Amino acid sequence: MAKTSRSYGKNPWALFLLILLGIVVGSFLGHLLRDVNFLTWLNYGIDFSIGNKGSNIVTLDLGVFVLHFGLRLKITIGSVIGAIASVFIYKKL
Predict the structure, then answer these.
(1) Which of 10, 34, 55, 82 could form a disulfide with 43 if both were Cys (CB 3.0 to 4.6 A apart)?
(2) Residue 52 contacts residue 32 (beta carbons within 8 Å)
(3) How far is the CA of 85 from the CAs of 7, 25, 27, 79, in angstroms?
(4) What is the rounded CA–CA span in Å between residue 68 and residue 80?
């Protein structure tokens, strides 16, 4: 019997987790550096949210069962730079 060699590619879950890590680290650095005059632009971004304007929560009240839904996503320049950097790191691995 001949051995068959399998070629494994890079794990897509590793890329997903690395991008999430890059987003979190980039957003964190943007938040830390918001008071530095020439780096305030890292914290500029836009908010996306699902829910009411004030509470950002959608409530489904069925009498006996109450569900609360809410989602808030803030995309900043720092988080985008972190995601791009994580893709470059993934390609180098």
Answers:
(1) 34
(2) no
(3) 27, 11, 13, 10
(4) 29
